[in-house]
Every structure is written in structure tokens, then in C-alpha cells.
Design goal:
The chain has about 700 residues and is α/β, with parallel strands linked by helices. It has helices at about 5-15, 15-20, 50, 60-65, 85-95, 100-110, 115-140, 145-150, 155-190, 205-220, 220-255, 255-270, 275-285, 295-300, 310-345, 365-370, 375-405, 420-435, 440-470, 475-495, 500-520, 535-550, 565-575, 625-640, 655-665, 670-680, and strands at about 25, 530-535, 555, 585-595, 600-610, 615-620, 645, 690. α5 packs across α11, α6 crosses α7 and α11 (about 220-255) packs across α17 (about 375-405). The protein is elongated, with a radius of gyration of 31 Å.
Length: about 700
């Protein structure tokens, strides 16, 4: 029905234009829109999802105080930024702590060839992993890592499930990092000769206590975690420097040590060069675990301080500082790995690396006791235990910065999943449960630890390879492609050697998918929006409609041809089916599905006129939620109660439900009413829903 408001009506209702701002954040109701003139328009910004929520108790407010921003260029970080070298210490508690066990693993796996196997790892670090993660930092500067890069490869639901798969490996890697590092810290404490024998059987209890303390640190905040990490890393590196310096002095003073090693090396090479290379390559997958700090380094980019006058300059500065972090950490670790691998191989008898040996899992601690005595050795044991314990902090920070950026945004976790403290509690409880289940046994968790880390590395290598292909970088494509193959070899070898690791990873993946789907179903009737934007034409349409008779009547329409005949037939049909007042003006509301796998979305309402029929068009992941949001925004902005008119949808209700869950559309009218009922508890204040 084509209706035109009179000049007097336009003048009288013109003030309403100021009350439908160009940008609306729904929720707050402007009490008297007639008092606001177009010359002094103030955008109404309120939150409908919280409008009817009861006042939160102090404990709840404290738990939800710190939120992890959604990933993306508009994300705002709540954490106080820190200098890159300070954040390096937080990532370093994971990366550098591998010195506690990696030289022993290399010696056990490769024997006299341990330094050669370690050299392969150092080469991979400097020539492969470092360039790879420098590229990842540039292309995902908000801390999402390679997950965000790979998410772009697949659209819609395929992309979401792909991310869930990757997050399953991320969770495996970092949660097992927390539990395994805590258990290894306990081992270092209990192996000290000064520890009473009565504590030897208390590994589970001690590990659980360490995990609870770690969770408590993160409940205080990120800055407290960074503050703890700095002295732990500094002291640990200094103690290792002392051990390395004393070790080389001892080797130089006793030529028989180096001579004995070279004799063993020559004996190993008796059959030719392949006898040297083969064992080193076989041991290589076990040593890749020493590269675990790169992904966490990238995930903590939001914590790194950056300078600049514009957002672009700040982001470029953050990328540069992250690259400094990665390069410095890689250089420090490479020097320590080569020196400690050489010293432990030359100075420690092979039998001590075996099960039950004094150097098993703690080669450098063994040297510290041998070179400096029990006093220094005890200090070293305590430092090793502390950095291993706090290696879980690096993993916890990575989990907090990655997982909440995806699952709540997908509707696959409760909204409180964005808050730091609740997820810290969840991860801590989960870590305690895993520790008890594995009896705080380091070896029992090693397979899952390796599988998770290697899967993350493979995903990063694939991401940068695809990026190089898209950038037409031939050198990058060849180099990163080769890196992908190397890491795939390491992952495959690890799965064959320790199949329990992939089984545990599958458990995490299945758990995330099940929890995500349940959460998605439970959250389907949420409002699911952050912002509504009305263009100028849409604002005028609403103004004119109210000007005609003081009412706001909206007809929901699923656009077909979008021509004059469609709207004429639709209006005629609705006036016959529903109680649309005979002389009332109407506006059509049409929702076009954008990405049904998305959950929340900024709604942009566009006004379109088709042969005199006024249409509000919106793109949204879900039709019912978008209609409810627009109706509530119109109600709150105009102080008028919108009346929306529908017709019943044909089809099976179960089929409609499945279509709504996965395609964003179904039997729209009852879903719109249910969403309005949940958002607005007062029936008298809800927009009217009429179905014929």
C-alpha cells in the first residue's frame, strides 16, 4: 500500500528521525524521543541482552571482569601491554624449560650422535620455524596464530569444524603442557637427594598443588603471570650458563672426555655417512618438542606493547616486536641446545640416561650436581622445578588468548567463555583431572604432548605455504612446502611410535565438538547481535510510517522476485490473514542469509524503495534473531511498539528446527517470539507478533 505522509505530519514527526540514530546498539530505551531534535541527535547505544538481566553479585562481576576480545582488526585488548622481552619470558618458561629434559632425550635416542641430531633441530629452528612464525605473526597480528590463517581457507560450516579440529590439537598440546610440565617439576623436586624419602610417593598430590597455585596466579591476572615469569627465566638461564661454562672448562681440562666421544662417533660411522645421518634423522622427531614455544609466542601478541599514532602503525610495531621476541628466543635456545647437547653427551655415561639412571629426564641437573656439588645442585633443581611448573603458565596464556576468541563467537561456548577467570578455572580443573588420571606420570603424557605440538606446527607450516602460493612467492612456496613435509614426517613418526597420543588428541577433539554443538543449540534463541546500523533511507522510512498514523507495522517477507507484484500480493495477503488495521501504513522487513555458520553479526539495515513500497533489508546469519533485533531496536529508538506480521511456514517442525540450526532459517514466527520473550521479560513491552 503506497502511503505518503502529509507535510504537517512530516513536520510533526520529523523529530523521530533523530531518535533512530545511524548506529544503534540495542537495549536502552530513550524515554521521550520527542524531546530530541535532529540538530542535537545523540546515538542510542544500549545492550538488549543485558537490559533485563538482574544485577550481578560481586563474585560474578569479579569473575567476568576481564574479557578476551573477539579476534579481528577491531578487537580491543583488556590486558596491560608489556615490553616484548618481558612477554618473551612468559613464552620462555615453556620454550627454555625444555632444556631440562631435551639433552637427555637426545642422548638417549641418538647416543654419541646426539649433537648431530640437535644440530638438525637448531637448523630447523633458525631456517624453518623462525621464518614460518615470523610470517604467521604478520598475517595474524591479533594472536590467533595459524588457526586464523587456515580458517579463511574453508567457508561456512566447513571452516568452523576445521577450526574445531585445530582447537582440539591446540587444547591437547597446551593442556598436556600444563600437566606434563607440572609432573616433570615434581620429578625434579623428588629426585633431589635432600628430599625426605617420605615424599617420594606423593607425586600426584604435589603436582595437583602446583597446578592449583598456577591457576591462582592467573586468577590474579596476566600481568602477575608476566611478573613471575621474568625472574624465573632470568635465574634459570643464568644457572644454565654457569653449568655450560663449568662443563666446557671441565672438558678442556680433561682431553680424554672429548677423545672418548670422538672414538664413539667414529665407531658409529664405521659403515659410512648414512650410519651418522640415519640415527640422527630417526631421533629427530623426538627433539622437535624443543620447538614448542613458537606457537605460544605468537598467541601472546596482544600482550606485547606497541607504539604508533594510528592503528596501522601500532599493529606494524607489534608485529616487529613479536619478531624480535621470536628471533631472540630462537637464538638463545639454539646456543643452549648445542652446548648442552655436546656437554651431556661427552660428560655423562650412557647408562645414566636409561630408565632408573640419575640423568634420565634431568641431564643438566645431573651435571649441576656433579660440577658444583649438592648445594648448587639443589638450587638448580629448585629453579628447574619452578620453570617447568610455570611452563604451564605459557600454555595457559595461549589457551586464554586463542580458544575464547573462537568458541563464544561461533556460539559454541557460553558467553562467559570470553572471560579470563572462568576459563582459567575450567582449564585448572581439567588439568587436575588429567594429572590424577595419568598418576602424574611424565612418560604416559609424552605421546599426547608430542602429537598436539607437532599437529600445531604442521598447521602453521601449511598456513604459511598457502600464503606463499597466494603471494606468488616461489621461494616461500618451496621453502615452506619442504618444511611442511619435514614436520609431517615428524608427526607421522610420532603417531606410529606413540599411538596413544593421537587417541588422546581425538578425545579432546571429540569433547570440543560435542560441547560446541550442545552450546550452539542452547544459544540459538539468544539475540546474537552487537550493533545495528540504519542507513538514511531506512531512517526516513520509519519516520514516514510513524508520521502517517503514529504506528509502526512491519510485514516480514521472504524475498522472491522483489518486484512490485510481490509486495502488493504480500500486503494484500497479510491484511486478509492478520489484524493489520485497514488504513495503517506498512513497512516490509526482509532478511537475507549471509553466513549461517556465524553466530553474532553487525546488522546493517538498508532502506530500499520498490515502486513505492518501502523495504528494510538486512543481511544476517539467522533470520529470526535478526527480525527480533530490528524490532527491539525500533521499539527502543522510536518509543513505539512495532507490530510484526507473519504467515505460518509449511513443513515438518523437526525439519524447520534443523534448517534453523544449520541454515539460519525455518519456522520464523515462533522463534522470533521466543527470542523476544527471553530478551524482554515484560509481555506488555514486547513488540507484537501476529501469525496468520
Amino acid at each position: 500500500m503506497k502511503l505518503t505522509a502529509s507535510r504537517s505530519n512530516r513536520t510533526r514527526i520529523g523529530r523521530f528521525l533523530a531518535c533512530i540514530p545511524a548506529r544503534l546498539t540495542p537495549g536502552h530505551r530513550q524515554k521521550d524521543p520527542m524531546t530530541t531534535t535532529s540538530d542535537h541527535a545523540v546515538p542510542v547505544q544500549v545492550d538488549l541482552k543485558q537490559a533485563a538481566a538482574p544485577e550481578r553479585k560481586p563474585l560474578v562481576r569479579w569473575l567476568l571482569a576481564n574479557q578476551v576480545a573477539p579476534s579481528g582488526p577491531e578487537a580491543e585488548e583488556d590486558h596491560k601491554p608489556n615490553a616484548w622481552w618481558k612477554v618473551m619470558c612468559l613464552t620462555g618458561v615453556d620454550y627454555f624449560s625444555t632444556l631440562s629434559y631435551l639433552p637427555g632425550i637426545a642422548a638417549l635416542a641418538a647416543g654419541a650422535l646426539s649433537p648431530l641430531a640437535t644440530l638438525l633441530i637448531v637448523a630447523l629452528t633458525l631456517l624453518g620455524m623462525l621464518p614460518m612464525y615470523r610470517r604467521v605473526a604478520q598475517e595474524s597480528p591479533h594472536g590467533q596464530g595459524s588457526v586464523a590463517m587456515l580458517e579463511k581457507l574453508l567457508p561456512f560450516w566447513r571452516g568452523k569444524f576445521f577450526v574445531l579440529l585445530l582447537l582440539g590439537f591446540v587444547a591437547t598440546s597446551w593442556i598436556i603442557t600444563i600437566t606434563l610440565s607440572g609432573a616433570d617439576a615434581t620429578v625434579h623436586l623428588l629426585e633431589n637427594p635432600m628430599i625426605p624419602e617420605g615424599l617420594k610417593g606423593s607425586a600426584v598430590i604435589i603436582t595437583v598443588i602446583l597446578l592449583l597455585i598456577l591457576g591462582g596466579v592467573f586468577l590474579l591476572g596476566f600481568n602477575e603471570a608476566v611478573g613471575v615469569a621474568i625472574p624465573l627465566v632470568a635465574i634459570y638461564l643464568l644457572l644454565n650458563a654457569a653449568v655450560v661454562a663449568a662443563g666446557f672448562a671441565h672438558v678442556f681440562s680433561d682431553p680424554s672426555l672429548a677423545a672418548g666421544w670422538t672414538d664413539r662417533l667414529l665407531a658409529s660411522a664405521g659403515g659410512g655417512p648414512m650410519d651418522l645421518i640415519g640415527p640422527a634423522v630417526i631421533a629427530f622427531p623426538l627433539l622437535v618438542l624443543g620447538l614448542s614455544g613458537f606457537e605460544t609466542g605468537v598467541s601472546m601478541m596482544p600482550l606485547i606493547k606497541a607504539a604508533g599514532n594510528t592503528p596501522e602503525e601500532v599493529m606494524a610495531s607489534r608485529v616487529r616486536n613479536t619478531r624480535k621476541l621470536l628471533t631472540t628466543a630462537a637464538a638463545i635456545m639454539s646456543v643452549y641446545l648445542m652446548s648442552t647437547s655436546f656437554l651431556t653427551t661427552v660428560m655423562i655415561p650412557a647408562r645414566e640416561f636409561q630408565d632408573g639412571g640419575q640423568a634420565n629426564g634431568r641431564a643438566l641437573a645431573f651435571l649441576a650436581h656433579e660440577l658444583f656439588g649438592a648445594g648448587f645442585g639443589t638450587v638448580y633443581d629448585i629453579s628447574s622445578a619452578l620453570i617447568l611448573w610455570f611452563a604451564g603458565a605459557s600454555a595457559m596464556a595461549g589457551l586464554i588468548n586463542i580458544v575464547p576468541r573462537y568458541l563464544p563467537a561461533y556460539g559454541m561456548a557460553p558467553e562467559w567463555g570470553r572471560a579470563v577467570r572462568p576459563v582459567v578455572i575450567v582449564y585448572t580443573v581439567l588439568s587436575v583431572g588429567i594429572t590424577i588420571a595419568f598418576n602424574a606420570d611424565v612418560n604416559a603424557q609424552a605421546g599426547a604432548y608430542a602429537t598436539g605440538i607437532l599437529a600445531m606446527m604442521v598447521s602453521g607450516a601449511v598456513a604459511v605455504t598457502v600464503s606463499a602460493v597466494r603471494r606468488h612467492s616461489r621461494a616461500g612456496t618451496v621453502g615452506f612446502g619442504a618444511l611442511t613435509l619435514v614436520l609431517l614426517y615428524a608427526l607421522t613418526a610420532n603417531v606410529i611410535e606413540q599411538p596413544d597420543g593421537i587417541a588422546i588428541s581425538a578425545f579432546f577433539i571429540a569433547g570440543i565438538i560435542v560441547v560446541s554443538l550442545i552450546s550452539r543449540v542452547k544459544r540459538t534463541t539468544e539475540l546474537r547481535l552487537e550493533t545495528i546500523e540504519f542507513d538514511e533511507a531506512a531512517r526516513h522510512f520509519v519516520t514516514d510510517s510513524i508520521a502517517f498514523d503514529g504506528q509502526l507495522n512491519v510485514i516480514a517477507n521472504k524475498r522472491q522476485a522483489g518486484d512490485k507484484a510481490e509486495y502488493a500480493d504480500k500486503e494484500y495477503e497479510q491484511r486478509g490473514l492478520n489484524p493489520v488495521p485497514g488504513a495503517a501504513d506498512v513497512i516490509f522487513l526482509e532478511i537475507e542469509i549471509s553466513d549461517p555458520s556465524a553466530f553474532s553479526h553487525t546488522l546493517r539495515v538498508e532502506g530500499i524503495e520498490v515502486d513505492g513500497y518501502r523495504v528494510l533489508r538486512v543481511k544476517s546469519p539467522a533470520v529470526p534473531n535478526a527480525i527480533a533485533a530490528v524490532l527491539l531496536a525500533l521499539r527502543d529508538s522510536t518509543d513505539r511498539q512495532p507490530q510484526c506480521y507473519f504467515e505460518w511456514s509449511e513443513g515438518n517442525p523437526v525439519g524447520h528446527l534443523m534448517r534453523y540450526l544449520f541454515l539460519g532459517q525455518g519456522d520464523t514466527a515462533p522463534l522470533v517470539r521466543e527470542i523476544l520473550r527471553e530478551v524482554e521479560p515484560d509481555p506488555a513491552l514486547r513488540p507484537g507478533i501476529h501469525v496468520g
